[in-house]
Recover the amino acids of this structure.
């Protein structure tokens, strides 16, 4: 079984300067900080990266930069998804993924396909993709949830579909996937609030937003849980929960970028249609960040 994406992963932000161009200096420091604090893998061009606002050229430049910066130290997963199956396949053929270790592909959004449509979408992607594929179920953004039955069908039918990032918040569905999955298939939570519960039932780890800000805590929590030290893992889970709630209170990545700005890690800049968080929330994040970092 492939365990390339196991443990603590981070859904990297895309830092922007005041001119709203990509701030590669801050991105480099962010990548270095993840590696230095024992994160296990990086996710490039996920939701948190504001990928929908990046041009094709910008996307490739971010992929190339992160791959070069990591120098093979930890695995890299690249977000390649969309709501047109043929367009996703075109992306797979046009983006240079040669040094990436896998892709993350989201359930098609807006179209609201049936479960059969979701199944056929991912089977077509798996057939076209030269890399391992991790599914991404996030109904709060896509408008539809991939059922446990569809996830398990894909897990059993496509050898290179190696896992799922579950951000449904539906723990009953997560349990059904954990119970019925093949051994080679990994369940990774996309919710910073559910890291310890997911791992305790057999999950493989997390793709975290909060790790952009606090990689040391997220990696420690994940590693404690994976090694069966649930008291220490639970203590961190409880400690970070108030901050996690504030990070998402006015949308992601606006929240995490505000917290990172207060810690001197990047500018507080997002591209429209996102906007920075309110002054009130910024001050709350600033206080909670000081208490944890």
């Amino acid at each position: 079984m492939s365990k390339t994406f196991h443990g603590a992963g981070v859904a990297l932000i895309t830092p922007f300067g005041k001119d709203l161009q990509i701030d590669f200096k801050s991105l480099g420091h962010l990548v270095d900080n993840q590696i230095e604090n024992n994160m296990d893998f990086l996710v490039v061009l996920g939701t948190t990266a504001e990928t929908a606002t990046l041009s094709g050229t910008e996307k490739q430049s971010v992929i190339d930069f992160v791959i070069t910066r990591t120098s093979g130290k930890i695995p890299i997963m690249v977000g390649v998804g969309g709501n047109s199956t043929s367009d996703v396949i075109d992306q797979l053929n046009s983006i240079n993924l040669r040094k990436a270790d896998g892709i993350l592909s989201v359930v098609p959004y807006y179209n609201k396909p049936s479960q059969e449509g979701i199944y056929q979408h991912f089977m077509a992607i798996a057939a076209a993709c030269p890399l391992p594929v991790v599914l991404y179920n996030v109904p709060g953004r896509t408008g539809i949830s991939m059922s446990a039955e569809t996830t398990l069908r894909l897990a059993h039918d496509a050898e290179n579909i190696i896992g799922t990032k579950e951000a449904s918040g539906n723990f009953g569905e997560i349990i059904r996937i954990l119970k019925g999955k093949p051994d080679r298939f990994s369940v990774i939570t996309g919710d910073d609030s559910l890291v310890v519960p997911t791992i305790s039932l057999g999950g493989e780890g997390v793709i975290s937003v909060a790790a952009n800000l606090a990689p040391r805590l997220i990696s420690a929590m994940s590693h404690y849980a994976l090694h069966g030290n649930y008291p220490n893992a639970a203590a961190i889970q409880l400690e970070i929960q108030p901050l996690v709630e504030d990070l998402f209170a006015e949308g992601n990545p606006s929240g995490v970028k505000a917290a990172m700005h207060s810690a001197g890690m990047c500018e507080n800049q997002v591209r429209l249609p996102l906007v920075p968080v309110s002054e009130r929330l910024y001050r709350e994040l600033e206080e909670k960040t000081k208490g944890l970092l």
Summary: DSSP finds twelve helices and eight strands in the chain. The mean pLDDT is 97. Residues 230-247 form the longest helix (18 residues).
